[in-house]
Structures
1.
Amino acid sequence: MKDKIKISERISRIVIREICEVEEKGDRETLEKWFSIKKMNRRIYQRLRSKKRFNEWNDLYSSINVDNDWELISRKIKGKEKKQKRIVWFRNMAAACVVLAIVSGAIALLLKSEKLSDKQLLATYSSPTLILDNGEAVSLNAPSQVLQLSDGDIQVSKEGKLLCEKSNAWFDKEYQLVVPRGYNYAVQLIDSSIVHLNSGSVLSFSVKEHGDKRLVALSGEGFFKVKRDEVRPFEVTVKDETIRVLGTSFNVHGYNDDDQVITTLVTGKVKISQNNNKHEAVILSPREQLCWSSLKGEVNVKEVDTEEYTSWMQGYVVFKDARLEDIMMQLSRWYDIDVDFKDTRLKDKRFGGKLYRKTPIDTNLQLIETINKIKIERNGKQVTFSN
Amino acid sequence: MEYDRLKYCFDQFYPNLCLYAHKYVQDIEVAKDIAQDAFIKCWDRLSDFDADAALKVFLYRTVTNESLNYLKHRKVEIEAHSILLEEEYMEEHFLENEVYLWLRRVIHELPPQGKRIIELSLEGARNPEIAENLGVSLNTVKTIKQKAYKTLREKLSKAEIFLFYQIYSRPGITLS
């Protein structure tokens, strides 16, 4: 059996290489040998290496909406849970501890072997964390500290801001800054540009002394103050959109759980293009906002009050005639809660106002309850809206 | 905690299980139902599986059995059935799923332009077409393509493609 696995492994590598249009010495011989074992093998191989087959597979894979289907089965499971949970609670506690140990072991292994998606990262870490390219994860919870790394130290400033320093320990590596729900965090990049990250965001960046571009990737929301450097443009990739800047400040909102990327320019100039190349690149002027909806395939530019889109950095948000669902999306990231609308029409209720992050969650919920004349119930992290 | 674990496994294995079932039932909606039922089934006995690999075995086995059951009920001809049951056929499914999944993942990790170029070239576009489509020069396409293939090759030399090792190498568990 072991030999069989080894052969399969070798054959798949050859197949992948072939799809990638490269051939290595000995590939032919290995294949011929494998074909001679069983008649069927040649057919298997020919089918596997077909680009068309891969494309069909890939399209089908993309058509599966994992989040949507998870909602379906999670509802069914929750219905089941209530009946059994209580009886086996103690037994489960012990089992759960074992599972936790194994799962965290598995996660550590995964971190080593393959990169986690932003979504997985956010689910894995409960406080702001810096991931190094060797898989090492450093918690950035306490401000004003020096973090010891295997090959150097990292400074975290008094205000709780991560500082990339011009030292060999930082250079030529890839980093991911994970800011889970319930936190805000800022990082000063090596070129002195500053990025403020809103709750539930991941910023991927590399630290290079030279190079012709400054590249970062964001999922979630961030406010960028980019240091002017005309020789080395600064590029932000958000989902399938790229924002190119020289030196400016702007806000980007592009969470993975909604289909829009909203870029609001405060000062300077930015050039935004969608990677599908169906739309022309757009240059924004201050106070302009570009909204790209991948679902509708639409690009819209309008003038806005920038405060509405940048105030989250100061710990409050201003809503003007905003949809209740959009407002709750922001609050759910701040307070790490999940919102359930019993009546979906409630999502479209509109109201405006100013909400502060430091205000206890229940006070804010009460406010929303009174203004909108609806019923809000909170049970731990679960918040339910009903008529 | 159990719930989080199931969610994690769902994100990891669900699409792949759908595609695996699809190979048998040839209807993606039915395939999704079968895959979802497998997760609901394993929820009751989640604590029986101490490692995610064991859970994966259970899920694949359940999906295989349910797919075959479905075909039986649909009264698909006996011959087709016996082909499906052949070991090679199942092996091929595994092989295809894991190889393609790996390929998909590494392509997704490429920088946006490299990703786009590889995707287009896998769709059968030639370099000049890609250059025109993306509005860049032919040389740029060639350079980026080479770079992307190099990245893929490097990843290939490091990666363990076969997560399903565990499935095969676990004693006492067969798939049919």
2.
Amino acid sequence: MKVFVPTPLRSYTREESVVEGSGSSLAELLADMDRRYPGFRFRIIDEQDGIRQHIKIFVNQEQAGTLKAPLRSSDEIHIICALSGGSDFRPQTSDIRPQTNPPWV
Amino acid sequence: MATKSKARVALLIATRKGAFMLSSDSLRRDWKLSAPIMLGNIVHHIVLDPRDRRTILMAARTGHLGPTVFRSADFGKKWKEAEKPPAFPKAEEGQKGLVLDHVFWLAPAHASEAGAWYAGSSPQGLFRSEDEGTSWEGVAGFNQNPMRETWTGGERDGTPDGPKMHSILIDPRDPNHMYIGMSSGGVFESRNKGVSWKPLNQGCAADFIPIPDPEYGHDPHCVRLHPLMPDRLYQQNHCGIYRMERAEGRWIRIGKNMPKKVGDIGFPLALHPRDPDTVWVFPMDGTAVWPRTSPEGKPAAYVTRNAGKTWKRQDNGLPSSQAWWTVKRQAMTADTRDPVGIYFATTSGEVWGTRNEGERWTCLARHLPHVYSVEVAEF
């Protein structure tokens, strides 16, 4: 499946913005990504398997809340760097749309 | 022992938007600023390994991406990320586990342990690497200690930028003997390389806790151990400046001898490398709502040359008014030259230094991002 990679993570993907990955769940996909691109996973997933505060992961148009989200090979995965810095504003789910360059960053 | 006069001094500067190196000639007269290193990364600490004088470790994260450690084996030319960065253990199903927000402090381990390092984190955690920062393991005696949450007050009891472990100090006589400082938590000591810990806060005020003379829960901002007199500790605390002779086991508030209108609140504290009685601090306004800026907008270092009995103001060369600086706990340090060079940096991005032990200050760089830390690298 296609994984869309935001700019802060492209040092891991040799500057590729879209890469291939595989897995039947988000957890499996991220394990696969970490094998291909060592260090990738921990930058966006914490040690308790939580998605980091300013990272959003969308499976097609749906935001994934946990790594248990099931995946199909036809899915597109968008990793989004959401709000970070500037204020203590915490974005609500409704504020986030999958975009390559979120306008608020 | 003083470093030979031919040695060059560089400052490793960690900022909210990347790291920088500020390098001097052998006279410490001319300084040259490097290009930014990892521009845009939030860098809390960048430290040279004094055992090989070429390896540098850097604690970084970004606004979006989680915490990690970078290592350079060639004095900052190339950087490589840790293969296994510091992280807390995964909690069992249904339990809440700790999440590491950032690595705050990096400290080379004992001189006899080549390649070994410690890292302190936010929230408070202690980690050790045996391989020059490539892989990190938690020190279970602290991170998984059943008293950890009680000692630290939990994640809500810390600095505005998160609770922190800092001031990881190794006894130069014994690699098993170490101290840590925690905001909050206090000063703790281990004599078995971190397997067990005891609070070491007797005599230190904690006027924000409604318990008289608490055993822990204090807020040391910066703790230093003198390398030539390892049983002498100094600390700049949220509640004053202190000295401890370890055999006595009690902190003495030497900040009471500071001028009353300046007070003895601040973040950093720097030691003279050869004279255990000489200490520099950089006071800040800790009154009312705690502006944490230079008192009355008039920045100055204060030095004691008699272990805290008397203090002398050192502001020659610094702005005489309207300078509302904040100098953070990692942002003041000393070199080993003779006379000693003292350096500090501000959250408004200025780096200042003196090559005559504070007699005259010079601005070495300005317009940098918010500075978190300054460390000396002599090579």
